[in-house]
Amino acid sequence: MTLTKPGTRPGVGRPSRERAQQRHEELLDCALGVFLDHGFDRATIDGIAAAAGMAKRTIYARYADKAALFEAAVQRAVDRWIIPVDTLREVETQDLEETLVAIARIRLESYTSPAGIALQRILNAEGYRFPDLYRLAFEQGTVPALRLIADMLSRHAAMGSVQLEDPEVLAGAFLSITVGGPATGVMWGVVLDPDVLDHRIRTCVRVFLDGVRPR
After folding, report:
1. Cystine design at 112: which of 42, 128, 178, 186 (Cβ 3.0–4.6 Å)?
2. What CATH number has the domain bearing residue 68?
3. Residue 7, CA distances (Å) to 4, 10, 45, 156 in order
C-alpha cells in the first residue's frame, strides 16, 4: 500500500528521502505511544504497524526486533526533549539569581512538556529492563546543563560572589530543588498554577544562593 498525503495522488516509485524520513519519525512516535499504552511486554509489532499505517516488513527492514525499535523510539523521545545548551546560555546575564530563575523555568517547561512527560513515563515503566536508557537520557539531556551551570557558578566564585567546593554537585542540587519536585508532581497529574510555580522557583533559587554566598 502506498501512503500519500491527503489530497494528493499516489506517486510513482520510491518516496523521496524527506518523505521517507518523515515516515520513519512517524513510526517512532507511534511506537512510543503503543509502548506507553501497553508496556513493552504487551506491545506488538503488529499493533505498532497498524498504528503507523505501515507494513511489518517495512519495520523489520529497519529494526531486527521489538527491543531495537523500542530503543530507537526512546532515543527519538530523548531527542525531542533535549534543550540545546545554547538555549540555556542565551539567558545568562550578570545577575546570577535571575539567570538561575530563567534556567529553572526552561528546564521545568521541558520536563513538563508532553515530550518530557512521555519520556519520564517510559523510563519509569521500562528502565529496569533497559537500564542503559537512563544513562542515555542523563548524559544527553542533563549532563550538558549540569556542566553549564557548574561553569557559571565557578565563574561567579572566581569573582567572589559565591563560595563553593564542588560546582558540579551544587549544579545537581540546584536542578533537584528547582525542577525535580514540580516535574515529578506533573507526571503524577498535579496541576501547577503558573504564579505559584514562579514563586516556588524564585524561593528555591534564593534558598540555593543563600547556601553558597560568602558568610
Report:
1. 186
2. 1.10.10.60
3. 8, 10, 29, 58
What own/partner pairs with CB < 8 Å and gap ≥ 24 does 89-94 have?
A: 89/148, 92/152
One-letter amino acid at 128 equals Y
Compute the distance between CA of residue 92 and CA of residue 106 in angstroms, rounded to an integer. Answer: 12
pTM of the predicted structure, to 2 decimals: 0.82
Closest CA to 33 of 15, 60, 16, 52: 52
**Of the residues 78, 103, 123, the one at which a domain ends:** 78
Separation in Å, CA 187 to CA 12, 116, 215: 45, 9, 38
pLDDT tens, position by position, 130-185: 989 889 999 999 999 999 999 999 999 999 999 998 999 999 999 999 998 888 88
Which structural domain range is residue 164 located in?
A: 82-212
